Amino acid sequence: MSLDLDRFPRVKLGTWPTPLEDAPRLSEALGGPTVLLKRDDVNGLGAGGNKLRKLEFLLGAALADGADTVVTFGALQTNHGRQTAAACARLGLRCELVLTAKVPRSGEAYERSGNVALDRLFGARVHVCANADETAATYQRLLDEAAADGRTVTTLPVGGSNGLGTLGYVAAAIELVGQLTERGIESARIVVPQGSGATVAGLALGTALLGWPGRVEAASVSHPADEAREELGRLASDAAALLGVGSPTPNDSPALNVRVQDGTIGPGYGVPTEAVWAALRLFASTEGVVLDPVYTGKAAAALVEWAGRGEFARGEHVVFVHTGGLPGLYGYAPELVAASS
Ligand SMILES: *Cc1c(COP(=O)(O)O)cnc(C)c1O
């Protein structure tokens, strides 16, 4: 077993380790578990978030390959795009964001505020596409332009989720298990949102390779649980192959101790429910912590649901991974105001 991440090219983008904070008033409100907040939302660059850990490996490889241009994809309010834009600014790379209008939201706040405004501030070129065909055509045009200019392009997948990006959360697993061990906490349930999958895959793979006894509890925010489980299994296998270790899968092996649930997706990706707004109010009013309505809000709604179902023993440690997303909240400002009054 090898957890040697040093042999991969990596650029430092965030401030590590991120804090692991007590949340006594939230724990009290949930009436069972002892909740700790892993603050991957306050890690420095570009307003922060979970994509920075992946980008350290993805852009490390891009620089090693001599890339000068980065192209990536996402929804209009993608946090991944915004963090990629900030990282490219710091590294002096040209950033092209190909954004697809796939969330049923429109209006001034969603289309022009939040992450979209920050993308432009960081100097990214933003290409808004109406559908998948336009997205594919735009991508091809950007590749042709770069070829004509003699530029070298690195293309990053949606959410930065591939085997290499997953290593960022293998590193996070090592960091988190170290922090828990330092506090004398031997096991915990790690609650985390799952979108494109590398965050959960990396945490599951990293904790498995460490032989840590806890469990990752994923709340899918975009795909049915079976699809999300398959995706994270594929990412964990790809990352394991890069590390040169055997590839554990979530289904036929106890090696990846992860459970994926989808009970708080609601109508779909990027569409908050009343339970999501209630979870935002709970975290804000007990701990002064702001969640986002697309990812962390849905994971927090799941945490509330699971606690209410008696899933956690009294005093059991639960680590809620705050993956960021605050700028995206401003895209939903009118809904936030309506939900808070
Ligand atoms: C992208 C994102 C996630 C999901 O992470 P994946 O690795 O894509 O599953 C969770 N929270 C926030 C705030 C994000 O931006």
TrEMBL record:
<dbReference type="GO" id="GO:1901605">
    <property type="term" value="P:alpha-amino acid metabolic process"/>
</dbReference>
<dbReference type="GO" id="GO:0019148">
    <property type="term" value="F:D-cysteine desulfhydrase activity"/>
</dbReference>
<dbReference type="InterPro" id="IPR027278">
    <property type="entry name" value="ACCD_DCysDesulf"/>
</dbReference>
<dbReference type="Pfam" id="PF00291">
    <property type="entry name" value="PALP"/>
</dbReference>
<feature type="modified residue" description="N6-(pyridoxal phosphate)lysine">
    <location>
        <position position="51"/>
    </location>
</feature>
<feature type="domain" description="Tryptophan synthase beta chain-like PALP">
    <location>
        <begin position="12"/>
        <end position="324"/>
    </location>
</feature>
<dbReference type="InterPro" id="IPR036052">
    <property type="entry name" value="TrpB-like_PALP_sf"/>
</dbReference>
<protein>
    <submittedName>
        <fullName>D-cysteine desulfhydrase family protein</fullName>
    </submittedName>
</protein>
<keyword id="KW-0663">Pyridoxal phosphate</keyword>
<comment type="similarity">
    <text>Belongs to the ACC deaminase/D-cysteine desulfhydrase family.</text>
</comment>
<dbReference type="InterPro" id="IPR001926">
    <property type="entry name" value="TrpB-like_PALP"/>
</dbReference>
